[in-house]
Design brief:
homodimer; Arc Repressor Mutant, subunit A; Tetracycline Repressor, domain 2; 2 domains; DNA-binding
DNA sequence: TTGCCATGAGAACGATCGTTCTCTAGAGTA
DNA sequence: TACTCTAGAGAACGATCGTTCTCATGGCAA
């Protein structure tokens, strides 16, 4: 028998694939069982309910998001370049053939009416991303008011790319962010 | 008996309220019947399926959105002010107590995996809004590349306001749009 | 080998869904 | 008044969901 950690990972990754592709409510627990190769009994011993599994999937998505952003930032030298690297990360993501928008936004739209846990988990990841951007804005020497503007650009790029179906929004948002950065640094010289 | 036009309107408005508040899949047709005061038989004679009703609701939402944007633009004199008026409209909307994000984005996240009709209807409204912004950008004498940037700000403000739960994103996006407008017009003088 | 216990496969359960059907009551007409 | 037709109320249907339960199987201790 596979150990709990492995089973847990298999279930979360399988559910993530299915949820992201088809939507959460459209995927039954039996489909998760088939995709993960883990029995229903085992799944329910690892996750007390589907709601808990959804939250675990969102946490897993957040780890992947954080890792992707961090990897993209590593290749940048300055805080300004790290900020713009966010949009380079988005650009690569938008070009993946199975890109279907931000899983957090999708889950929020689908489940926020029903699950408080989902609402909170989604809000937490958006707040964490906002804090990440705010820290880079501070390091770049720009006024704090720039941070939410950049975060809004990143959010908007994700929904625009999902709905219109092309990667262009990433470059457009990146250009806008660059303009905003230039304007902010101009007003706040060293 | 009420005529078809009235019944249709009652059903669409009732469904809109329920779908927007609780999510589409969480609302059964029987709940729509109760809220609208129109029998199931009648509903199914007006809309062949729930999918058709969803599309009708989205079209209704689009009319309300277009009207709101137009009313906000009417109070503005120049093209530049009309562009910024979009964010004033958003600001008022975000402050409504039952604001729960953009119905189109929510529907897309919830249903795009299953319904081609929903996908297309959502895409159409985003494209229409993009065209509206593009026309104003042109009238303002700014380069065309500014238009998608402003549209992305509007999209991002909507999801940010929905998830974080405050109206601040509207003013933040408005400030960003103003900065982008200034920078664009500076580079492209008359 | 024998008994035991945990496990997985999948049937079962109760709820709910979208959709259709039945039945009844009432309006309109001759 | 008697007949017809329509529409509404809601039961019914088949499917599917999340969750639980049953039962056969196979490893493991003695």
């Amino acid at each position: 028998m596979i150990d709990d950690t492995t089973a847990r990972r298999q279930v979360v990754e399988a559910a993530d694939r299915l949820f992201y592709t088809r939507g959460v409510q459209a995927v039954g627990m039996d489909a998760v069982r088939a995709e993960a190769g883990v029995s229903l009994k085992r799944i329910y011993s690892l996750f007390p309910s589907k709601d808990d599994l959804i939250v675990a999937v969102l946490r897993h998505r957040r780890q992947m998001w954080d890792a992707g952003i961090a990897a993209s930032a590593e290749r940048a030298a300055t805080a300004r370049e790290k900020l713009l690297a966010v949009f380079d990360f988005l650009d690569g993501w938008f070009r993946e053939p199975d890109f279907r928008g931000c899983a957090f936004i999708n889950a929020y739209g689908e489940l926020s009416g029903g699950s408080e846990n989902v609402r909170r988990t989604v809000r937490e990841q958006k707040e964490a991303f906002g804090a990440y951007v705010a820290e880079l804005v501070r390091a770049a020497g720009a006024p704090a008011s720039l941070a939410p503007q950049i975060a809004i650009l990143a959010e908007g790029a994700q929904t625009t790319a999902a709905i219109l179906g092309g990667p262009e929004a990433a470059a457009q948002a990146r250009d806008a962010a660059e303009t905003l950065l230039d304007a902010a640094l101009e007003k706040t010289p060293l």
